[in-house]
Design goal:
- The protein is mainly β.
- Among the domains are: 1-120 and 491-498 and 784-804, no CATH class; 123-225 and 417-463, Beta Barrel (Lipocalin); 226-360, Methylamine Dehydrogenase, Chain H.
- Strands 10-11-12-13-14 form a 5-stranded mixed beta sheet, with no helix packed on it. Strands 8-9-64-63 form a 4-stranded mixed beta sheet, with no helix packed on it. Strands 15-16-17-18 form a 4-stranded antiparallel beta sheet, with no helix packed on it.
- Strand 23 and strand 24 (286-290) form a beta hairpin.
- The radius of gyration is 28 Å and the shape is globular.
- The chain starts with a strand and ends in a 13-residue tail after the last helix.
Length: 813
């Protein structure tokens, strides 16, 4: 059903239900869905969003502050099958178990009409493990779906790569990152442990295999069977020569780290229970293993167990209940610290095997421990979402004897904390609530600075949404399927801030599932909506689409050029006649498309010598240029008419997060992980005067203090001076015709400007116009009719889909 809205005398919206066309769903082939009522929320407390493209623009000098109107209670009885999930959300059952989530809104914002899309049900995966390389300042994060994300702590937490077990898939990014490269995962695969050995990254999981990753080509280099059943933990010695794996069968298996692979060396003395956690002594002579009810200390040379440390069950615990030692840490002074399922953090003397001290920190499990590099601080993560810090300090002023004392408790998570990293100045944590949290230790950083701000990373900064701006289509990427949606329509015009009536609702046209176990690593939709492409770690698929009214056909292109392999990113040219695919060795494959098939044209290569993958592809509107950016912080521009390198942008110290070529001036605009903005002239092969002025004056402090990266750059054809940017939390228009804001200027000044007279408003306006009315932006696209398509994923919708957290006792209950 479709809602037709009008405005009553009191300014509220009211609606009647009218029949509309069938909604179609496709799973490789066409499956028509029968009519079914879509029930709309009808309550003054609920907000109804309606998607609908609009053609005209309105010139409005006010700020970018949209508003919505409450809905009047509907006078008719609603169907009995109505399920109102949350404010603005309606779930309606369709045949074939298809759930259509209808959440749409059309508002006029400043110069644009906006389609607010909230039916992309992206759901991030829980964080299972982390590993930090202090030498390279790289953080590796493993998720429950097999994803491995790599962040650069030296570059504003830029997420450089994301890999999945046996293939790298979807990536999430932290502040300062952009479209991350992915090698897709596989169904049923999970990672239980991560480990750096030098600059090499290893993972292990319950399938009993150890995998090393090729970080240049973003794929697993190889996997080796440990032959010990599921692997619960892995740990490398500080010398980088041995890798230990704790297995289900009670063995600790030692692997020698060779130049090109690892090789099994021997087993340590076999135990009766599974090995849950491992920690090497810094000397490499001993290794501690956490098990059920005990900790074993092994001599790494002889393989024999030298000590057995019995872990008590705690007061009031049944004797039949085992205690799981989830995590151990072996310090340089032979102190062993353990965390267990009885909620205890215990300190042991590793030389004598005696218990020194017990800290009861929770009634639930202590799941993970992490130690600072100088071994003066230990943090413990619990299953109730808290993080407890212990410091090795004197309990009394003036005394020299030091003890492990509980000093702080943090609460940044709603669910289990499964992974922790303790850097010199911050605590990095992750768990079941899917968020990666960077919490600075205020005694280690200067207060009231960017470094002292808490940072939560909840959303991917890799683009999971493709838009056919000439056809009004959206492509949503999930791990194992794609969804193609057609936007709704409205034939009405309104005033700024007004919600518009919907003429046609959005429709899900196709659901395309992948074959096999490999997940999707990248996808693209051509601007005209006639081509769809996606890639897994093993293959590339290309489809020809025909959409005429409600008739949709999809045809697979059977023969693809052999050069289309090992693809990291896909992108179509603006005329939809070419497909660009970033491949191995930082190269880009160019393929020509016609009505029936595709033809290999050329492989674009630069001469910098970098082998790092291309994570950004940006063709120009006129089809003359292609800009690429890789994780070596390089930006190259290729001439597509001559099929050769035109020039390279001078290298900057921070990785580019978004790159785009201006359709009028031909200048390239780039934004980097440290929030710096540059404009480079392709004709002059130098930075533009506007860019030089920006660098001389400097960006506003409030812009530089943002901790989320710009992930998209676009331009307004009706006003060449406008640059459109967005990150997860805001949409921005930079007007190059206006002066840049001074450091002391009020940065967020749109509301103030609207209250000023026209002459004073012009005098106090600056180039940056910020809108924060959208909730957690996954994508913003400017359509051919100059309307904006904004894809949102409110964080509360993700939280609502998480499993229930551990029950916590509240005060006075």
């Amino acid at each position: 059903m479709s809602g037709v809205f009008g405005e009553d005398s009191e300014g509220f919206l009211q609606f009647d239900l009218l029949p509309v066309e069938n909604v179609m769903s496709y799973d490789q082939h066409r499956h028509p869905l029968s009519r079914s009522p879509i029930t709309l929320p009808a309550s003054p407390e609920l907000r109804l969003d309606i998607i609908s493209p609009c053609s005209s623009t309105s010139s409005h000098s006010g700020g970018l502050l949209p508003s919505t109107l409450p809905l009047q209670e509907h006078k008719h009885a609603l169907p009995a099958n109505r399920k109102v999930m949350r404010a603005g959300y309606v779930m309606t059952h369709f045949p074939l178990d298809f759930l259509l989530r209808v959440v749409v809104n059309v508002i006029q914002m400043g110069e644009f009409k906006v389609h607010r899309v909230r039916f992309f049900d992206y759901m991030p995966s829980a964080i299972r493990s982390m590993a930090f390389n202090s030498h390279t300042e790289r953080l590796a994060v493993a998720r429950a779906d097999g994803a491995v994300e790599i962040f650069n702590f030296a570059d504003n937490y830029f997420q450089e790569k994301l890999e999945r077990f046996h293939s790298l898939l979807f990536t999430e990014k932290i502040p300062g990152s952009v479209d991350a490269q992915v090698i897709a995962g596989r169904n049923g695969r999970s990672i239980e442990a991560l480990c750096w050995v030098g600059c090499r990254l290893f993972s292990a999981g319950l399938d009993g295999e150890i995998t090393e990753y090729d970080l240049e080509n973003l794929r697993p280099r190889y996997s080796i069977e440990a032959y010990g059943g599921p692997i619960w933990t892995i740990s490398g010695n500080s010398q980088g020569t041995l890798l230990a794996a704790g297995c289900e069968d009670g063995t600790v298996k030692m692997f020698e780290v060779l130049e090109d692979r690892i090789q099994f060396q021997r087993n340590l003395s076999r135990q009766k229970g599974r090995i849950i956690s491992l920690s090497w002594h810094p000397s490499g002579a001993q290794i501690a293993a956490g098990m059920m009810d005990m900790i074993r200390i092994f001599d790494s040379e002889t393989g024999r167990a030298t000590h057995r440390l019995l872990v008590d069950r705690g007061v009031g615990t049944s004797k039949s209940q085992e205690v799981v030692v989830w995590s151990v840490a072996f310090l340089n002074d032979h102190t062993i610290i353990s965390g267990d399922s009885a909620g205890k953090v215990q300190v042991w003397d590793g030389l004598t095997g005696t218990l020194i001290r017990t800290h009861l920190v929770t009634k639930w499990d202590v799941l993970v421990l992490a130690v600072s590099q100088d071994e003066s601080s230990v943090i413990a993560g619990t299953s109730e979402g808290t993080i407890v810090q212990f410091q090795f300090i004197s309990s009394t002023v003036g005394q020299e004897d030091k003890l492990w004392v509980q000093t702080r408790t943090f609460k940044n998570h709603s669910h289990d904390v499964r992974a922790l990293v303790h850097t010199d100045s911050a605590v990095v944590s992750g768990g079941m609530d899917t968020q990666l949290v960077v919490r600075p230790l205020l005694d280690k950083v200067e207060k009231n600075t960017q470094e002292s701000a808490l940072c939560k990373i909840a959303f991917p900064h890799r683009n999971l949404v493709s838009c056919a701006k000439k056809a009004g289509l959206l492509l949503f990427q999930f791990p194992d399927h794609l969804e193609l949606w057609r936007l709704g329509e409205s034939d009405r015009h309104g005033t700024p801030g007004e919600s518009l009536p919907v003429k046609r609702k959005p429709e899900k046209l196709i659901q395309l599932k992948t074959k096999g176990e490999d997940h999707i690593c990248c996808s693209a939709l051509s601007p005209c909506g006639s081509w769809l492409a996606y890639a897994t770690v093993a293959t590339v698929r290309l489809y020809r689409l025909q959409i005429i009214s409600n008739d949709v056909s999809i045809q697979k292109v059977s023969k693809l050029p052999r050069e289309l392999k090992s693809v990291h990113q896909l992108c179509f040219s603006s005329d939809s006649c070419r497909l660009f695919a970033s491949s191995s060795l930082s190269s880009v494959v160019v393929v020509a498309l016609d009505q029936k098939d595709c033809k290999y044209l050329h492989t674009l290569k630069h001469n910098s010598g970098s082998k790092q993958p291309v994570h950004i592809l940006s063709p120009s509107e006129d089809g003359h240029w292609l800009a690429t950016a890789n994780t070596d912080r390089e930006i190259h521009i290729f001439n597509l008419q001559k099929m050769k390198l035109h020039c390279s942008v001078p290298a900057y110290s921070s990785c580019p997060t978004a790159v785009s070529i201006h359709p009028t001036s031909g200048n390239l605009v780039s934004v980097h992980a440290d929030q710096q903005i540059f404009e480079f002239s392709l004709k002059q092969k130098e930075y533009s005067e506007w860019s030089r002025q920006l660098q001389r004056q400097g960006l506003h402090p409030l812009w530089l203090q943002r901790d989320t990266p710009i992930t998209c750059i676009a331009f307004n054809p009706s006003n060449p001076a406008h640059i459109l940017l967005h990150d997860v939390f805001m949409f921005c228009i930079i007007d190059q015709s206006l002066p840049l804001p001074e450091a002391k200027t009020k940065f967020f000044n749109q509301i103030t400007l609207r209250s000023l007279p026209q002459t004073q408003r012009l005098r106090e306006s600056h180039a940056f116009k910020i809108c924060k009315n959208f909730q957690h932006l996954l994508s913003v696209n400017l359509m051919e009719d100059l309307s904006l398509v904004v894809v949102e994923r409110p964080l509360e919708d993700i939280v609502a889909q998480l499993p229930a957290p551990v029950r916590q006792k509240k005060f006075a209950t």
